[in-house]
Specification:
This protein is α+β, with helices and mostly antiparallel strands. Helix content is about 20%, strand content about 40%. The chain has 4 helices and 13 strands. The strands form 3 sheets. It has a 6-stranded mixed beta barrel with strand order 1-3-2-6-5-4. The mean pLDDT is about 90.
Length: about 200
């Protein structure tokens, strides 16, 4: 797990649609901290630190310390609600965690060594099937990103989850198949040449 960022938050007293609107009129985002068998805590926070964390990628896979009046709450983000037109953040849900918690997170996929991939060097195209993979595990073991090494993959080959090394105790939520993360596909020119070659062979 990467470094844990601290996000300042403030408490709020009332729940409900009207109270949330009042928070938004202040230029803040209403939210809640829940989980770990403790009472939910209503919060509000500046949206700018949230946007900064979102831009880093892997937002739902990272841990955060929420600083509420000097008290730290170790959390992971569970859900963000956006305005359908302006994309402003309307609400944020944080899950309170401990070292023994089992959490589910969408983890982004990063592809390494594209310049050393045989299929891409031959003109193939990387077709990403899954930009994120849902994983389950303890917070400290959860990776901020899945790294997929493209060395050795040629045109026409698929990269499955079994090719990715996961931290101990972390598993995909999909367990009934070796699902595809990406494929190295032939470009249209290469496909046309292959089709012409097949046609010539059939004619011969």
């Amino acid at each position: 797990m990467s470094d844990i960022s601290t996000l300042p938050v403030q408490g709020r007293e009332r729940a409900g649609t009207g109270a949330a609107r009042a928070v938004r009129r202040e230029g803040l985002v209403p939210g809640v901290i829940y989980g770990d068998r403790k009472e939910p805590v209503l919060i509000k926070m500046d949206p700018r630190p949230l946007w900064a964390e979102l831009y880093k990628g892997g937002f739902y896979a990272r841990q955060y310390d929420l600083d509420l009046d000097g008290a730290k709450h170790r959390v992971m983000a569970q859900d963000l609600h956006f305005h359908p037109v302006s994309d402003a953040i309307l609400h944020v849900d944080f899950l309170r965690i401990s070292a023994t918690s089992r959490v589910t997170a969408e983890v982004p996929v990063r592809f390494l060594n594209e310049e050393r991939c045989p299929g891409l060097k031959r003109g193939g195209v990387l077709n990403v099937v899954r930009h994120d993979v849902e994983l389950v595990g303890t917070p400290d073991a959860m990776p901020s990103a899945l790294e997929v090494d493209l060395v050795g993959f040629d045109v026409g080959e698929s990269i499955h989850i079994s090719a990715v090394k996961l931290p101990e105790g972390v598993t995909p939520t999909i367990t009934d198949r070796d699902f595809t993360i990406a494929t190295v596909t032939a470009p249209s020119g290469m496909k046309s040449e292959a089709a012409e070659d097949e046609g010539e062979e059939e004619s011969a």
